[in-house]
Design goal:
The protein is of the alpha+beta class. Helices cover 30% and strands 25% of the residues. Helix 2 runs antiparallel to helix 3 and helix 8 packs across helix 9. The longest helix is centred in the first third of the chain and has 26 residues. The chain is globular.
Length: 379
């Protein structure tokens, strides 16, 4: 080997070592901290508080209170929440009991009750209160209890071993013929979006309707297909909405099927009899007043004030009282919300277009607030 060749080889090796070192440093870098922080606030700091029809959220709060009060006084508010000490059930009993006196309630009485019973706290991730807010709705599908004609896509019941298969394996027939088919629908794109929404109404050929709801998943990691479309240049980042993803899948059925299989997560369903849809707190959701959160940080049943601005429609601002009553596979982090819009075309349009940034405040009982350091900070 010539001297020049040795120098070239040495330089190549050195470059490879540098690249490897940089890659290792990237992979081993410490991840950003994820921790719920709560800062006491006053009601006059909640922009729009005096304008909202807060009484419209009281029925949702009462549903959550019914679920809360069914537990023992010494039980935690939400056993899955590790974000902060939100107190035992006993500390929520008085505020919930007082809420029952508001039916029927007017906005003035509801506001007075809330300001008396609760203290607002601005939620943050290590102090950063800015978060992502999206929307979901009860989707409408067409289906049949029997396979045939256009009804070729199954919605599966939860199997005995739900974590055994990935989406690609299930789509490939891993659960076929095992008696787990709940409903057959006419559109695989609708079936996929049902998984994202978590609940839906299936119109049957005879005109009947079946309500279906979330019944667990396969435990595989959730891969957002929207992110994949952005990375591949299929949909611009500033145009990414639920409607844009659906439109791309419908226009590209073969590629859309392949894209869906890149998300290993799969959702199973059960038939819901009676009112619905049912959220993770096992209460009926209220359009415009129920919100899905990450219950690792935020307990279900907590009233919240949201203040968010649409990214693609800057003049569209949503400020209202809601109640944490649901969760979702893509709802992760201390400041992350998914607003339930209800059922029907208007709900589908509103939820599909929602892509907002903003903040939320948790409304906590005064005894909990005192323990968290709010003291007399209130209104």
């Amino acid at each position: 080997m010539t001297r020049r060749a040795r120098l070239t080889a040495g330089a190549t090796l050195l470059l490879a070592l540098i690249v490897a070192a940089l890659a290792a440093a990237y992979l081993l870098r410490s991840k950003p901290a994820t921790r719920l922080t709560l800062a006491p606030a006053r009601y006059d700091q909640l922009v729009g508080w005096s304008d909202d029809r807060v009484a419209a959220a009281i029925p949702a709060l009462l549903r959550s209170c019914k679920a809360i009060l069914a537990k023992c006084d010494d039980a935690p508010l939400d056993i899955k929440t590790k974000g902060a000490d939100f107190g035992p059930i006993g500390e929520w009993r008085a505020p919930c009991a007082a809420a029952t006196a508001l039916v029927p309630a007017d906005d003035q009485a509801a506001r007075r009750y809330l300001e008396t019973a609760f203290v607002p706290f601005l939620a943050g991730n290590e102090g950063n209160s800015d978060g992502l807010f999206t929307g979901y709705f009860e989707i409408a599908l067409k289906g049949s209890r029997k396979r045939g004609g256009p009804y070729q896509t199954p919605l599966y019941r939860r199997p005995a071993e739900p974590t055994r298969y990935s989406r690609a394996e299930i789509d490939g027939g891993a659960l076929a013929g095992k008696g787990l088919e709940l409903i057959w629908v006419d559109d695989p794109v609708d079936a996929f979006f049902l998984e994202i929404q978590g609940s839906g109404r299936v119109r049957l050929p005879d005109g009947g309707m079946v309500r279906v709801g979330y019944d667990g998943g396969n435990g595989k990691p959730y891969v957002p297909v929207g992110r994949l479309l952005i990375e591949r240049g299929a949909v611009p980042r500033d145009k990414l909405t639920m409607a844009a993803i659906r439109g791309w899948m419908t226009a590209n059925p073969k590629d859309g099927a392949a894209l869906r299989r890149e998300n290993p997560s799969y959702i199973f369903f059960r038939e819901i009899v009676g009112d619905g849809p049912i959220g993770a707190q096992q209460v009926v959701l209220t359009a415009g007043r129920s919100i899905a959160v990450d219950r690792v940080f935020i307990p279900l049943g907590v009233p919240m004030w949201i203040d968010v601005q649409q990214r693609f429609a800057p003049n569209d601002i949503i400020r209202r009282l809601v109640v944490a009553q649901d969760t979702g596979g893509a709802i992760k982090g201390p400041v992350r919300g998914d607003l339930f819009w209800g059922h029907g075309d208007a709900a589908a349009t509103g939820a599909g277009a929602m892509n907002a940034r903003g903040r939320y405040y948790l409304l906590l009982p005064r005894t909990v607030a005192a323990r968290l350091g709010a003291g007399a900070a209130a209104h």
